[in-house]
Write a structure and sequence with these properties.
heterodimer; A: alpha+beta; 7-stranded mixed sheet; B: alpha+beta; Ubiquitin-like (UB roll); 5-stranded mixed sheet
Chain lengths: 767, 161
Amino acid sequence: MEKQTPGGRPYKVIGTRPIRHDGEDKVTGRAQSGADISFRDQLYGKVLRSPHPHARIVSIDASKALAMPGVEAVITGAELPQPHDRMFLSGEGGVENFRYVNDRVLASGKALFEGHPIAAVAAKDIWTAEEAVKAIEVTYEVLPAVTDVLKAMQPDAPLLHEEITTETLGEKKKESTNVCRHTQHKRGDVDQGFSAADVVIEREFTTSTVHQGYIEPHNATALYRSDGQITIWTSTQAPFWVRRDVAELLELPLSTIKVVPLEIGGGFGGKIAVYLEPLAVLLSKKTGKPVKLVMNRQEVFLATGPASSTATRIKIGVKKDGTITAAAAHLVYEAGAFPSNWAVMGSMCVLAPYKMETLLIDAFDVLTNTPKVMAYRAPSSPQAIFGVESVLDEIALELGMDPLELRMKNAVEEGDRRADGPKFPRIGLKETIQAAMDSEHYKSPAPSGPNQSRAVAVGFWFNAGLQSSATVGINMDGTASVVTGSVDIGGSRASMAMMAAEALGLKAEEVRPSVADTDAIGHTDVTGGSRTTFATGMAVYEACQDVLGQLKKRVATLWELPEEEIEFDGSAFQHADNGKDPMTVKELGAKLTATGGPVMGHSSVAPTGVGASFGVHIADVEVDPETGKVTVLRYTVVQDVGQAIHPSYVEGQMQGGAVQGIGWALNEEYVRNDEGKMMNPSFLDYRVPTMLDVPSIETILVEVPNPGHPYGVRGVGETPIVPPLGTLHNAIARAVGVRMRSLPMSPPKLSAALQAKGLEAIAAPTP
Amino acid sequence: MSTKRVVTATINGTDSTLIVDDRMSLLDALRDAAGLTGTKEGCLTGDCGACSVIMNGRLVDSCLVMAPEAEGAIIETVEGLAQGNDLHPLQKRFLEHAALQCGVCTPGFLVAAKDLLDRNPEPTDDEVRYWLAGNLCRCTGYDKILRAVHDAAADLRSSSR
């Protein structure tokens, strides 16, 4: 399984760094995202949002708005068909019930979070739409709100949904509650496991709500024609899911809806769910004109899906030699205003990197008066693994053991089981830890100035498979086109073209990749879950095999030889002993017409050979004891990437994920007041890292090919957001002797903790 | 209430006459009136830099400039960086270094970096980081952008020699 094609040949295209095919348009400003398209007769939409985190909607009076010149339509929740129960995949493993999607898109009865859509307007220009929204009169009966997960679990907490009871281990309880699901995983007798341990450490942790922070706000434009045919132009990670969701919400057949995915300005899991699309469709239906809606940044923060805040308790027991004997995890995850299963995901990630004989995991999904949580890069894994990596760091210190050796000792490998059951196939955690140990960064002396230190942490993500479709066409000059249904969010068109080029013996530049709308390609699931290069790449590979099979027949015709005797060696078709010159795909292009016409290959796949991904991060930090500001002096990401198709974009995923994780660890949080309102819904006050805040992130690519993919691909993009939380936490703890156990470790929080420690030290000096 | 007016400005070297609403920002005017959608909207509050343009030699967030203020101004946007099909060194180096993923922040970074290199042909790491700290990128983690800017600066220095 070393670096070679399935036929045993060295790669020619894979592993090189061509210019991405869509790059020119993106550096010249020609690339069009959803906000960049317009129609001459289009109307502008605007959403009226609840100012209250929790309120009963007593009445909505839109008469004044409708009377304004230029206002063409107003819609409210009453316009949506009655909600119905049907479960569906809403994100990277997230499951939702359509019953609650209606309500999320337009409130009915109650406003359940600040920013909850109450009504939407279509008008001749954006200013009229904004004025019209203000003219809609809504009477609210304000209800007590709860935004803190632990408070929401209390029996006297305000209830969001009267009909919801806890589903625990598959059974529904009787009494109404905000705890929508309790999940448990158990292995062996965990009490016995802890009593067999020499060192047992148990700690509690909290993390704040954070947002994906993509730079492009959500947008949607829709046209509902008189014949009932609908077109939606939008920047989404999942055009086929947008089509499904709109069809389900409006009770329409899928064939009436075409979704055209425009270029997308970031998503990270946050642009999977529908928000504006159904509103644009309904407003267009009422007006007969295209209707365009674009969120502003405040709306993005308030009313799209961030990642869960959490409260966790982690207990780990080890033998003196570092062997883990038992671990217990108690995980509470913010669901937001509608049922979620993000704690379920956390329960599957929390102990995944380590072997142990006994474990117990309890996970709780808890409703709060906050926007419905959606996927954010390796959703639920960072918060869960943060606590584990912190406890392991304390254990390493207690045992006097190198923190990477402790992890190596317990690292999972092929054949080990995750807590939730599945066995790992070939994975590269041990190789990754070894590469971290061998790295120049780890071998260099740790920073030893005042308030400086170094630490490490591990991260894990499953990666997804799901379904993908691709077509590969051979042009009449032997070059090729690749069409997929996977929205390109970070350079995937280049990797699709490269995999096709590798398969067909062409150059990357001889393959033109594109992304099709929902009418022009078979069903393709979300761009997310680190699945695109893996699963859509597999569809591209299979479509190329289809092409090669057809081309072989043409060669057989030309050479008047049996098809079975002809081989494609990765560059050209050959025959062992007929004396014919090898014939390349390029050369065959000109002969297609004469041998039977055009050749196009198709493939739709639902691959199961998904390869999980592990990473190890190393950070050197310095803490300013007066301000509590943390400076990241040096940072290295080491990760098993399977096989890097385009190494530059693999490095980019590792660097970008790490920087998002650094922001999560150090600064990012939803700050809420006593009423539960968000106090910082802007990029000024919600601080994502700038170029000044982070060093150049170093990367080490470990390549343990995934046997489940012809080119060894395993997902790359998500794992790198997981380790920074623990890595920076541990580095700060080692630098200043304070374990925060609460994110973000922002300057005010860290300086307060340092002051408290200073006072303590004065009160009771210890050596 | 709505008031329309005519604004004349030089955009990317071309004299342009735009009909704008008084309530429009320069960003709106560029995108909706001039049809130059390369300049992107990220926040509308001057915090993300996606709408960066150079106005009368000064780097501005076009979302914070009202359209009527552009009367008589000389404005440079991402669409003006390339000379025909000859890409600016910054554009070439961004592509070579894979200094973009989704690409929505890219126009703002390119314009801000051009403004930096117009002023300072040989910036240090810190100078690049300081100048570009007003531009948010959520995809790349910035390292490849930093490298691309340094390489483009070197290209410009050697071509002007």
